[in-house]
């Protein structure tokens, strides 16, 4: 498809090409192929693309190149390129990508998000940064405290804009946009294109280039989806129990965290079932080896986090096990889409503990199909560790306690539920045109 296109032919400069080579990126992905030349020209962009398509590099590479054209700083507390992302995880990933691709360019970068103390973030911003990746609530907070200035922003990116709106960041995002100069390059990426996103695009983008990459079609219908309602403490024994079935010959087990992946893999090893864990803390070599062994069938079970599993392209996966429910419903579709490739059928088991019911509901809303409730398995042993903590109450960690996700997804600064804003007279576009 695009295999004959090289990054050099897209017009990227030598320091970026070296970094891409080191990251072992051989050829641009379709969105990179489509987006990079237009972004290098300074065009605005509306991108319809999901995570996993290579969209981060599609915007990060041209941003780095454009920033390198003039080496002036942004001044104290200033920012030259601003990337807004809905969650802390995504913000961290984007920042890491900038640092990987920009390794030979010497730019200052910073990443800020809510749920942690602001001190170190304020310090990181005090001398100004070339590239700032931020979640909207914390950024607006710091901007209002005059800890950061946005009046020197040359390039603005809204990443996963649909999620930002869904999370109630609409007002914060617009307030932030208003703080940036009208003369800027603006990019908006979204996995879906509801009306609110189109409207946002009309407000902040100027004659944008539209790029769209169709995600891999996931035939969810061909996947038998079962859910086990179990306490967290018996998930391990349930997994062992299921793995007795020889039909589970090539299995991916998903956990939310790297530690979770290590723990599950360690537990399987102890039970005499060889497995490999892959996640961001493993070296490239270790990940490659684990994947090769999985592909060849030498390892039957791969334990992975969502992020690590993104690049996995292995056919004939018989089962996907959601040891922990994914934080968002789209990840569920991505996860189970690992099975039932190329028209085959597949099976997905989800382990849902009482704290994960909301995630399950969100999944069922998205797929418009209730998961089949699997019959309880008798005689499962609870693990010691969970046992020590005592039984988990269905409401534990919910309204009265700290939500499990706290810190991962910050709250809307303005506390505004979804977008209820009416378009301003003139709109931001007209203001920009007039500028
Ligand atoms: P993203 O959609 O930006 O989250 O990227 C998904 C994954 O693909 C990340 O792990 C990137 O490091 C990787 N990636 C992005 N572009 C390429 C490429 N051209 N070749 C190989 N891997 C890539």
TrEMBL record:
It comes from the Bacteria. Keywords: ATP-binding, Cytoplasm, Helicase, Hydrolase, Nucleotide-binding. It catalyses: ATP + H2O = ADP + phosphate + H(+). A motif (Q motif) lies at residues 5-33. One of its GO terms (biological process) is ribosome assembly. GO terms for cellular component: cytosol. The keyword Phosphoprotein does not apply. Residues 382-391 have a biased composition (Basic and acidic residues). Residues 379-435 are annotated as: Disordered. Residues 36-211 form the Helicase ATP-binding domain. InterPro entries: DEAD/DEAH_box_helicase_dom (IPR011545), DEAD/DEAH_RhlB (IPR044742), DEAD_box_RNA_helicase (IPR050079), Helicase_ATP-bd (IPR014001), Helicase_C-like (IPR001650), P-loop_NTPase (IPR027417), RNA-helicase_DEAD-box_CS (IPR000629), RNA_helicase_DEAD_Q_motif (IPR014014). Its EC number is 3.6.4.13. Residues 420-435 have a biased composition (Basic residues). Residues 5-33 form the DEAD-box RNA helicase Q domain. Belongs to the DEAD box helicase family. It comes from Labrys okinawensis. This is DEAD-box ATP-dependent RNA helicase RhpA. Residues 222-383 form the Helicase C-terminal domain. One of its GO terms (molecular function) is ATP binding. The keyword Heme does not apply. PANTHER family: ATP-DEPENDENT RNA HELICASE RHLE, ATP-DEPENDENT RNA HELICASE RHLE-RELATED.
